[in-house]
């Protein structure tokens, strides 16, 4: 029963932030936005086995920088940079657990198509709105998060794969809503997919053991 207490608390605090905390005062809103991430970093640490590896430290560092990104996103480029660093940590950690299969390897094709289409739309919108200074940071972020997703898929770890897919979905909704066109209930969609993504990535740590090895209950082909 005890093992469900922290996940339940994470769920309750996430629901509280998404649905009940008002947008003002901003400091209170920001505090409650960060609380689920603090809890998830603690949860992730508890998932780490006694014999810690470089993978575990890298993913924990990724969660920490994403948490910083949450707090700094009010300054968009600064927050984006923190998230980008977080994804670089995730990507490095996932690539250290590389498990080759041709099906997983070929997932780079649809991921590349997504990155190109999303990047094309965002760049066009940024040019139309005269936000040319954001083009390079946005392209860099799309590239890094796409490789992060591919690196997660190459682990074969279902928790990491689904978590990374949800992360891409969350950021895609955020970017589209911010730069292209309004999306109904964007705030709810962004934060619910984001919190789920981070929780699943935290959960994936229990499956990683040594370099290029993990012990899953089941894995994707």
- Which consecutive residue ranges, at least 5 long each, have pLDDT under 50? 211-218
Rounded mean pLDDT score: 93
How many domains make up the 3D coordinates? 1
Assign an overall shape.
globular
β-sheet strand percentage: under 5%
Helix content: over 70%
From the structure provided, what is the oligomeric state, counting identical versus distinct chains? single chain
Rg, Cα atoms, Å: 17 Å
Order of helices and strands: HHHHHHHHH
Q: Give me the count of strands.
A: 0
Q: Helical segment tally?
A: 9
Describe the structure.
- The structure is a single chain.
- The chain has helices spanning 5-20, 26-47, 54-72, 76-95, 102-105, 108-128, 135-153, 158-180, 186-204.
- The chain has 221 residues and is mostly helical.
- The protein has one domain.
- 36% of the residues are buried.
Give the key terms.
globular, mainly alpha, 0% strand, 221 residues
Question: What layout of secondary structure does this protein have?
Answer:
Layout lengths: L4 H16 L5 H22 L6 H19 L3 H20 L6 H4 L2 H21 L6 H19 L4 H23 L5 H19 L17
Helix pairs in contact: 1-2, 1-9, 2-3, 2-9, 3-4, 4-7, 6-7, 6-8, 7-8, 8-9
Summarize the structure.
The chain has 221 residues and is an all-alpha fold.
């Amino acid at each position: 029963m005890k093992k469900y207490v922290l996940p339940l608390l994470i769920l309750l605090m996430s629901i509280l932030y998404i649905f009940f905390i008002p947008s003002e005062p901003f400091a209170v809103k920001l505090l409650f936005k960060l609380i689920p991430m603090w809890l998830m970093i603690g949860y992730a640490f508890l998932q780490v086995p006694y014999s810690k590896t470089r993978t575990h430290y890298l993913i924990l560092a990724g969660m920490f920088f994403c948490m910083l990104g949450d707090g700094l996103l009010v300054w968009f480029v600064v927050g984006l940079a923190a998230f980008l660093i977080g994804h670089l940590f995730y990507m490095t950690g996932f690539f250290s657990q590389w498990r080759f299969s041709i099906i997983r390897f070929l997932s780079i094709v649809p991921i590349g198509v997504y990155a190109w289409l999303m990047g094309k739309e965002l760049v066009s919108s940024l040019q139309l709105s005269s936000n040319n200074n954001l083009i390079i940071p946005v392209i860099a972020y799309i590239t890094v998060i796409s490789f992060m997703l591919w690196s997660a898929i190459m682990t074969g770890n279902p928790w990491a794969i689904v978590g990374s897919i949800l992360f891409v979905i969350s950021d895609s909704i955020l970017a589209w809503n911010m730069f292209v066109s309004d999306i109904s209930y964007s705030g709810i969609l962004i934060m619910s997919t984001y919190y789920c993504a981070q929780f699943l990535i935290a959960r994936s740590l229990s499956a990683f053991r040594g370099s290029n090895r993990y012990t899953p209950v089941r894995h994707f082909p």
